[in-house]
Amino acid sequence: MTRYVFIGAGAIGSAVGGLLAARGTDVLMVARGDHGRAMAAGGLRLRTPEETVSVRPPTVTGPDGVVLRPDDVLVLTTKTHQAEAAIDQWADVEVHDGDTVRGRAADLLPIITALNGVASEEIALRYFARVYAACVMMPAAMIDPGEVILRGTPQRGVFHLGRYPTLPADDPDRREADARWLSGLAADWDAAGCHVTTPDAVMDWKYRKLLSNLGNVFDALLADPGEAGDLRRAAEAEARRILDAAGIGYISDETDNAARRPHFSVAKVPGTPDRIGGSSWQSLMRGTGTIETDYLNGEIALIARRTGDAAPLNARLTALARRAARNGLRPGAITIDRLTDELRDALPGTSLPGTSLPEPV
After folding, report:
1. What domain of life is recorded for the organism (predicted)?
2. pTM for this one?
């Protein structure tokens, strides 16, 4: 029986793992801090628009004492800036088949990179032979330890999953075996309320999600992120220009909207705050001291520099988010006027066209 091992079980990892556990699927949560202690002591509460479900998945803080099995699937759900440390910790853990040690996790087990951004796949590929990229569309939040708020309904989220890199077309046997494995995973996750599709061009989905996540910084810094419409459109327009110039493909807005619309919409969960932000907002709310913006807006700046270009607006936003996290600022600590002043010399001379992006997740 497949067991899903969620490494860095925060909002997304706890949400998917908890939903699977509620269906009787074998899971193992790997979590630290207050959230890990709360799950180990009292289980996990999943709050949805329709109901609250409590589960008690086995929870550990790391690989010590964990016996990995040949049918385990590792699911990485840390923030991207935490990914390499987590991957390094698990890559050389032994995989046991009864009393026999079969080898190392990195050689034998698949790892799914269910993170924002587009950098974790290359990080994982330095260690693991079988890497699967996951584009995550799931409005989940962890505000209190031991509890996850899931606002998607009727399904809780949509996941695009695919092998990284794509297997070559002239290797039909491996492609067929891979398709069968992904089909089994999709059946498990679909039954738990997480709709899974398995496109070949999974990174096109992740780059489209990257464009969406450029707005996370405004969600985190401003009391009313709706005031940042022009700034957000300018950041997205700058990013599209950089991706297009670098020849990097991404899914169209229409395809992206069509993928999520039949499966879920965001709804209010009774008894929760009116405003619940995305992953960057949650980092500032919890006062972690770090934020993933280096791998969101900062990814655009990196791509620009690699091609001899520049992305001054996204670069400046990256620095502001890093400073806010380092200084312990809470969400909404910066006014729109102050933010505009901070960004003024990085803004284009004229208003740039943009599109309406979905709520950050």
Report:
1. Bacteria
2. 0.93
